[in-house]
């Protein structure tokens, strides 16, 4: 089993509500885009972009994908036939495919391979979800 927990990303993700609040703040009397940007640690060019997108109705919400429920079901065994089975040979090595990467909103990512223990993965995801 392989589980990699990667560090937080450097890029800040702004929620839709935060973007709207900052854009509205730039529209207040006596406020400047540069002043609002400086106070909140945002590049002024980003605020200008958000203002333009808001005017055009294109200021989207969060770009972080939502988690969806996943159900893991066992693989059905093949139907047996009455035909004679060949002599058993050593099991073939499974190819290392099926890597899944799960990204959380805070920039934390988890990569798991197909051999991950579901109980362990569930515990790891629960801990990360609480962060």
TrEMBL record:
InterPro entries, per the entry: Transposase_8 (IPR002514), Trp_repressor/repl_initiator (IPR010921), WH-like_DNA-bd_sf (IPR036388)
GO molecular function: sequence-specific DNA binding; transposase activity
Organism: Bradyrhizobium cytisi
Family membership: Belongs to the transposase 8 family.
Record Pfam families: HTH_Tnp_1
Protein's name according to its UniProt entry: Transposase
GO biological process: DNA transposition
